[in-house]
Design goal:
2 helices; about 5% helix
């Protein structure tokens, strides 16, 4: 029997999360994309896939469902099959031998939905032990200084964000090239001596999907959001998207993203700010960033890359990639002007 039968007064709106708002979920662990793991054990493979597919429930349909089941003796479930869905996510996390994770992520909308932003991935800050003397640095290429309330932040030259930081966004006025928006974001932990001990890089592949520069520039007006907690939030699509009406995605919209999350091991190339690689389909994507001049610099690569063709994806004007084929010595690269980068496809 209902105790409170009067009208309900609403004094404010609050944003919160409803659990569980997912349904029609399919979850699998696969070896090399084909063999499903169904039991504990030791397995051999080139890579491991964690595949997760699900729908996000329509909130209005959830409310209607709850109204229809008011007073029921059965606990209502927010993922009841009778509840409509707003969109479908298909996500595969592919773990390679170097610890890099490639994120294959698609979104399909079933209904017209309001769009804030979709990042397809995000990352907590790297941990820095208090009292260790180590420092946390943020690096973002292809950016101009971002004017905040505390200072102008130059993330391309790198910023120490250990003690001082504020919430910042990378709007179009902070992109160094309007036709090639920032698409990768790194945090580095440095020792007292200023030497990088380890780092983390995340971003969108420029080979396919939303990360292709000509496509990316039409999908976002804010490339990235750095919270005061130092957590990183890349934007894959947002409400600045070209052609969006009233900030809403129409039904049957569809987006494909290839993202990546890579560890940075400075021992591979001590001269590099970033030297790491990830898988994109059958290709390897090598990411190199330097904050120094280099001449015919040798970048050592794994033996299994020998013989692969090197193709430029995104190379700064200050950088020359001399190699066209990966050799036993890896590849050769030169940098002038004290700074340069190269994103290379190995196929």
């Amino acid at each position: 029997k209902a105790v409170h039968t009067g009208d309900i007064g609403i004094s404010a709106k609050l944003l919160n999360q409803l659990e569980s708002m997912t349904q029609n979920r399919i979850f699998k662990v696969l070896l090399d994309g084909t063999t499903e793991v169904t039991a504990d054990g030791v397995y051999t493979c080139k890579y491991v896939d964690i595949a997760n597919t699900y729908d996000i429930s329509n909130l209005a349909s959830v409310v209607d469902y709850l109204k229809a089941h008011a007073g029921s003796s059965t606990q209502p479930m927010f993922n009841d099959p009778s509840i409509d869905s707003d969109m479908r996510f298909c996500i595969t996390y592919r773990y390679a031998g170097n610890g890099a994770v490639t994120v294959y992520h698609t979104i399909r909308t079933y209904k017209d939905v309001a769009l804030g932003y979709v990042g397809f991935m995000q990352a907590a800050p790297l941990f820095v032990q208090s009292g260790s003397g180590r420092r946390l640095w943020q690096y973002i290429p292809k950016t101009k200084p971002v004017v905040g309330k505390l200072k102008a932040w130059n993330f391309q030259t790198m910023e120490d964000i250990t003690d001082t930081i504020e919430t910042l966004s990378l709007g179009t006025d902070s992109w160094s090239d309007a036709d090639n928006p920032p698409e990768r974001f790194a945090q580095l932990v440095k020792t007292v001596e200023g030497v990088t001990s380890h780092g983390f890089l995340m971003g969108y592949s420029q080979l396919r999907g939303i990360g292709v520069p000509a496509i990316r520039k039409t999908l976002v007006n804010n490339a990235f959001f750095l919270y005061v907690s130092r957590k990183q939030y890349p934007h894959g699509i947002d409400n600045g998207m070209t052609g969006l009406v009233n900030g809403r995605l129409p039904a049957d919209s569809y987006f494909e993203a290839v993202g990546y999350r890579c560890w940075i091991n400075p021992a591979i190339d001590p001269d590099a700010t970033v030297c790491t690689w990830y898988m994109d389909g059958n290709d390897i994507v090598l990411v190199l960033d330097y904050h120094k001049n280099l001449k015919m610099h040798q970048v050592a690569l794994p033996a299994q890359f020998v013989g692969k063709t090197i193709t430029a994806v995104d190379v700064s004007a200050s950088t020359t990639v001399h190699s066209r084929i990966v050799s036993n010595d890896g590849l050769l690269i030169s940098v002038s002007g004290g700074y340069g980068y190269a994103v290379l496809r190995l196929s």
